[in-house]
Design goal:
Blueprint lengths: L2 E9 L8 E9 L19 E10 L2 E3 L4 E10 L6 E5 L3 E2 L4 E3 L4 E9 L6 E9 L3 E11 L4 E8 L7 E4 L12 E10 L2 E10 L3 E8 L2 E4 L7 E9 L2 E8 L6 E6 L2 E4 L7 E11 L2 E12 L6 E10 L2 E4 L10 E8 L2 E7 L6 E5 L2 E5 L7 E10 L2 E9 L6 E7 L2 E4 L8 E10 L2 E9 L8 E6 L2 E4 L6 E13 L1
Parallel strand pairs: 4-10
Antiparallel strand pairs: 1-2, 3-5, 5-8, 6-9, 7-8, 9-10, 11-12, 11-38, 12-13, 14-15, 15-16, 16-17, 18-19, 19-20, 20-21, 22-23, 23-24, 24-25, 26-27, 27-28, 28-29, 30-31, 31-32, 32-33, 34-35, 35-36, 36-37
């Protein structure tokens, strides 16, 4: 405590002879141990970090997702709460946003910048991306008419979610039949294309977006839709206008129909597929031209495609008199088409107009090509063949011209392959399974890397067939 000390001193008088004693008190304040020299205040503490805690949300993600991490820094004194971030896998930003690169467990570390010996960690469970398979097709009702359908499932599973697609109603309240012919996926949106027959008198082109119906027919005309592609927010559909025997090839962009020209004198032209690359729209198709003479005179189907409406004719393989292109794909500036000789005696595909014939399976009496897909430098063509003696059919696909036959689903005697999609190194094929020779498809099916699975039938349906397949990985 403070100690005050007084002293007295005799000072000679200047103005009088009377000595004056002036007592001067000098207070000397001494500080005891533990006190401060600032008038009784405390000395500022040296900053000291005691702990760093880390939390990340969500704590479980897939490889194509992110998690945001935050650090809580505790300590004494006036200290900085800043941290530096590190991740055992993937990357993390200075603000704590973590992006993984591989499945597993990632450890996130936050280290105090005030005291680098203090840090905290959190673990994030990282799963692989979720892949969903979407299959379009139709089921056959008790009247024998097709009804458009869509299946969604996880690869390798037969536990699919089945969606019967909404059908429009005619003026009489009756819809004769509707089928789905193709499918595309963009982000989380699923597009299914198809057409219907109003009581056997008029076809109507249409597509569904996440199950919501959009009709495409314009001006009361008769239309069919055969293929669909999506680029950004734009929807492209290929098809034909006019009744059978009087068709014209067309395509739609966001519901607006555009005609496609064919050479003069041709008959029965149709558009069979559509693909988009950048700002270019590619439509595959064929048209009939007069061929032969005398008793053999007739019309032969000529293959080709349109680029932004401009027609390009494809060369025929040696010995072929006609060809039916059934699918088209585009990658960059490269254009790929697949097709077969009418009658199914031969199969081929074209890359930028250059032809490559495909080997046929042993024992096949005929082969039909149904689609094409491209992944990197690999070209995939899908189809099926049949034996005229037994009636059995074999599903198959080719990779860069090498044939691979697909195994039958359990208990089935035949199969057709009608669509193909590729995601990474995985190959997905859609089609149907057949029970008994010379019989129609009894159940929709799909294959993942050659492993077959059948798809469920809805109640009151007698059969089903898949016509297209798409894959989304998110």
């Amino acid at each position: 405590m403070p100690i005050c000390q007084s002293t007295a001193k005799s000072i000679p008088a200047v103005l009088s002879n009377i000595p004056t004693i002036i007592a001067i008190s000098i207070c000397i304040c001494l500080t005891a141990c533990g006190g401060g020299g600032n008038g009784g205040g405390t000395t500022p503490q040296t900053p000291a970090i005691t702990s760093v805690a880390v939390g990340c949300s969500p704590g479980s993600i897939n490889t194509n997702q992110t998690s945001t991490c935050a650090a809580t820094v505790n300590g004494n004194g006036s200290y900085s709460s800043a941290v530096t971030w590190a991740a055992s896998d993937g990357t993390i930003t200075s603000s704590g946003v973590f992006t993984p690169t591989a499945a597993g467990t990632a450890t996130i570390t936050a280290t105090s910048t005030e005291d680098t010996t203090k840090s905290g960690t959190a673990s994030i469970a990282v799963g692989g991306p979720t892949t969903t398979v979407y299959v379009a097709g139709f089921m056959t009702n008790s009247s024998g008419n097709p009804v458009a359908a869509e299946w969604q499932l996880v690869p390798g599973s037969s536990n699919a979610t089945t969606k019967m697609l909404i059908l429009p109603i005619t003026s009489s309240g009756v819809t004769e039949e509707y089928t789905a012919t193709g499918i595309a996926v963009s982000g989380s949106d699923v597009y299914v294309v198809g057409y219907g027959d109003y009581s056997g008198t008029q076809y109507t082109a249409l597509y569904w977006v996440n199950g919501t119906l959009e009709t495409l027919s314009a001006n009361g005309g008769e239309f069919q839709a055969t293929s669909i592609a999506v680029s950004g927010s734009d929807v492209y559909v290929a098809g034909t206008e006019g009744p059978p025997g009087y068709e014209s090839p067309v395509y739609w962009v966001n519901g607006t129909v555009k005609g496609l020209s064919t050479p003069s004198g041709t008959v029965d032209p149709e558009a069979t597929g559509i693909a988009v690359s950048g700002s270019d729209v590619y439509v595959s198709g064929e048209w009939g031209v007069l061929c032969g003479s005398g008793l053999t005179e007739g019309y032969c189907q000529t293959p080709g495609y349109w680029v932004n409406g401009t027609l390009k004719t494809l060369p025929l393989p040696s010995g072929w008199t006609n060809a039916v292109p059934t699918g088209i794909a585009a990658s960059g500036s490269d254009v790929y088409l697949a097709g077969y000789e009418a009658g199914g005696n031969a199969a081929a595909y074209w890359v930028n107009g250059t032809l490559q014939t495909l080997p046929l399976p042993s024992g096949a009496s005929w082969t039909i090509i149904t689609g094409i897909a491209v992944s990197g430098s690999n070209v995939y063509v899908v189809g099926y063949g049949g034996d005229n003696t037994t009636g059995d059919q074999t599903a198959m696909f080719w990779v860069n011209g090498t044939l691979e036959t697909l195994p039958l689903p359990s208990g089935m005697t035949g199969a057709e392959a009608t669509g193909i999609a590729v995601s990474g190194s995985d190959v997905y094929v859609a089609g149907c399974a057949i029970l008994g020779g010379f019989q129609p498809c009894s159940q929709a099916a799909y294959w993942v890397n050659g492993k077959p699975e059948t798809l469920p039938l809805s109640s009151n349906m007698t059969g089903a067939e898949a016509t297209g397949i798409a894959v989304s990985t998110q």
